[in-house]
């Protein structure tokens, strides 16, 4: 499957329902504060870490405590989403959880987080079919025939705009801003 909502939810630390709503062109989630996003995404990563390792929260708190030089109590409160880390400690959590995108992983709005995760899929499409993203999309979605006379005259910039338009149709802009 080209776009797997469950995998995208894991990559972005967003709820799967939010990912599905955005992929289906639904309204963006209600406005939230940066602090809410950070606490929620850390909590989601902590839960996924515990689930993946089969361990307990106390073990995770101990590892974070050791890695970041903070108390286990503080680490547990952060992992439970009850405490907000400083920028310096947020940077340490980026490294601990090995997330792509740096601190922005924790702070960016849901639609931007999803766009970040979708960009590698677009890159993959651009590499498929001899570098022709339109042909790759057609092949992916079973389009067998189309009038490609105009397509052959697209410049790289026009094709990139076409792909940007596809992304915008999947994840609508937030409050009129481009993504």
So how many helices? 10
* Count of folded domains: 2
Shape from CA axes?
elongated
Structure classification: mainly alpha
Largest sheet: none
- CATH fold name of the largest domain: 434 Repressor (Amino-terminal Domain)
Reported CATH architecture of the largest domain: Orthogonal Bundle
Helix % is 55-70%
Sequence stretches where pLDDT stays below 50 over 5 or more residues = none
> What's the helix-strand series?
HHHHHHHHHH
Rg (C-alpha, Å) = 20 Å
Instruction: Report the top-level CATH class of the largest domain.
Output: Mainly Alpha
Provide the β-strand percentage band.
Answer: under 5%
Mean pLDDT: 80
* Ends distance: 24 Å
The beta-strand count equals 0
Textual characterization of the structure:
The chain has 179 residues and is mainly alpha-helical. It folds into two domains: 34-107, 434 Repressor (Amino-terminal Domain), CATH 1.10.260; 110-170, no CATH class. Helices cover 65% and strands 0% of the residues. The protein contains ten helices and no strands.
List the helices and strands and how they pair.
Blueprint: H1 5-12, H2 16-23, H3 34-53, H4 57-68, H5 72-79, H6 87-97, H7 104-107, H8 110-131, H9 133-140, H10 156-170
Helix pairs in contact: 1-2, 1-8, 4-5, 8-9
Which terms summarize this structure?
179 residues, mainly alpha, 434 Repressor (Amino-terminal Domain), 65% helix
């Amino acid at each position: 499957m080209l776009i797997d909502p469950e995998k995208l939810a894991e990559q972005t630390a967003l709820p799967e329902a939010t990912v599905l709503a955005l992929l289906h062109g639904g309204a963006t989630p209600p406005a939230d504060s940066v602090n809410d996003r950070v606490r929620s995404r850390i909590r989601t990563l902590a839960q996924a870490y515990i689930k993946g390792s089969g361990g307990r929260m106390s073990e995770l708190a101990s590892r974070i405590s050791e890695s970041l030089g903070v108390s286990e109590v503080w680490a547990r409160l952060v992992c439970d989403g009850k405490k907000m880390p400083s920028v310096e400690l947020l940077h340490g959590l980026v490294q601990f959880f090995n997330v792509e995108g740096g601190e922005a992983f924790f702070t960016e709005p849901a639609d931007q987080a999803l766009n970040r995760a979708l960009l590698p899929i677009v890159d993959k499409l651009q590499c498929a079919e001899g570098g022709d993203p339109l042909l790759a999309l057609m092949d992916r979605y079973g389009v067998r025939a189309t009038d490609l006379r105009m397509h052959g005259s697209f410049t790289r910039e026009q094709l990139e705009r076409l792909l940007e338009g596809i992304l915008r149709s999947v994840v609508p802009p937030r409050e009129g801003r481009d993504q």
